[in-house]
Amino acid sequence: MLIKRLILAVISIVFGVAATFLIMMAIGTDYLTYGFGYTFFTSLALACFLGIWLDKFMGTKLLPE
């Protein structure tokens, strides 16, 4: 179960960071203009979004039912 949870966390974080940089490219800005705070919290929100869905489909039971 621990391995599944670690895999979920890694996939979610990678997805959040990659999606954030894709969003920044789509709106035509860079990291320095967007800022650390916005980048961090956008990545965190997207990672949590995917993590909730992965928790359900992977059956890791991180969240209560």
Summary keywords:
mainly alpha, 65 residues, 3 helices, single chain, 82% helix
Task: Provide structural commentary.
By secondary structure, the chain is mostly helical. The protein has one domain. 82% of the residues lie in helices and 0% in strands. The chain has 3 helices and no strands. Helix 1 crosses helix 3. The longest helix has 26 residues. It is elongated and about 40 Å long. The two termini are 17 Å apart.
Would you kindly provide a brief summary of this structure?
This protein has 65 residues and is mainly α. Helix content is 82%, strand content 0%.
- Rg from C-alpha positions? 14 Å
Helix fraction by DSSP (H/I, runs of at least 4): over 70%
Largest sheet data? none
Beta-strand proportion: under 5%
Number of domains: 1
Mean pLDDT: 95
Structural class: mainly alpha
Overall form: elongated
Number of strands: 0
Order of helical and strand elements: HHH
Which regions have little confidence, pLDDT < 50, spanning 5+ residues? none
Q: What distance separates the N and C termini?
A: 17 Å
Query: How many helices in DSSP terms?
Result: 3
